[in-house]
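Q: Can someone sanity-check these two? First one:
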Amino acid sequence: MPKLCLAVLAHNNRPCLDDFLLNIRAFVPSAEVVLFNGGRDRNLFDGLDLDICPYSRPLEYGRGGGTAPFHFQIMRWFYEERRDYDFLVTLDSDMLFIKPGIESYLENRMRNSAYMAVLFQEVAPNTRWLTGRRFHIKWRGVWQPIFGTRNPYGCFNPGQVFRKEFADRLMNFPRLNQLLERLQRSHVPGLDEMVWATMAVTLNCAPLDSAKSMHSAVRHVKRHSPADIQAYLRDPDVHFIHPVPMALEAPERRLVRLLRDGQSVDFASFQAEFDTFKTSVPLSKRLRSSVLTPVLSKLKDAQLHLVPE
């Protein structure tokens, strides 16, 4: 069986982090689990008997590379310590495994590849994807000289998979310092979804898109219903889901806890509960989403065109 390492990025919410760690231990018991503290609570991991990345630091969206440094610092740490592993999977804390078997799955699917991500794709200049479009604003002048590809590549961030060969090649990449400097200076948001996908091509890692069903299982914002989860359980390509509400009482979490503990699940009852369950969204966040976000998005685009990278 391949040696798997799971790196979990956490910012806050210790109860849901504990829930995720119990979930991992049930479904991926052989994996090595490490933590990266991307928030400002230095006591977030108190009492946990797990390795914490010594390069942990607060990460901010749209500044200093966003969460892209998380992936790099985990690989850097492993490289410096000469850790032995076959696959590194980078995880957000709002994820859950739903069944065992990911180790053998990755070994088979990535037999000839050192990188895989959800929605891995080449990103053309005329893309309608906001993250890719913004990256293209600085592509020719800033990023292309580093990567050397015709176009950048992108993916959806949660659950990126790196073979050890990726990290070894990255640490010996001749323009690594230039890349890290650009990451630190960049104002472009979403670099975690662009930089490592593009680097996989630059480093000749034969990158793969995930199976098509993973495009639904790992997605942005939209929650997974009990009916969705029931379908994923029958799908050999799906082992984890994203997003999961950061609330212990959410039906999805309680359902997966039953799966974790080997108990039977009444999917119909959970579906009825799911249809009425709403997570609490602060008024300020709702206003920002409906009113401010479109305006701020246009201002951000203008800033990226005007501000030197």
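And here is the second, same format, sequence then tokens:
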Amino acid sequence: MMNNIKSKSYISVFIFISAFFLFTSTTFAATEVYFTKEISQIKKGDTFSVDLKISSEKKINVVDGVITYDKNKLEIKKVDKTNSILLLWVMEPVFDNKKGELSLIGGVPNGYSDKNGQILRITFLAKNDGETVLGFKDIFSILANDGLGTNISAWFEPMHINIEKKQANYLYNYILGIILIVLSAIILIKKRNDK
């Protein structure tokens, strides 16, 4: 009898723990906002693009927030919303390179729930070398398509970027130097022969 009660208790605890982890994992994975970029190596002086994307199992209606970046390392050159899932813009994307911030408020008629939804493409200039992070201000929020504007508990994933020093092309300069020396020698020899 006692063993039977113990085994039922263990089963109950196991079910409870399994349900807890299943619930929490699906809750945290339900909506994610993140960055992607096509190139892996970025050097000082390079211009490169980063896509702001969203994946959501829940139907979202509004994206409202501020992206942050290091103004000493990065400068926004252009923001493109051509392929954005957001079709209604309460506030067009606005960036301030003095503050290192990009603000936006956009909506999706009838909602959106899918993977890798494009929000914006941001083109940056890598001003200085070093490690830097693209992130989100705390006020960044995703609202559900439920007619109530319910705030969805989303996972915001920053992007770490390493900007490398611009390497001088010593080989190019060396070859160019040799060519100039050879040309100078040819010109001198020709002048001597002409005399």
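A (reply): Looked at the second one. The helical segments are 2-29, 170-194. The first strand starts at residue 31 and ends at 37.
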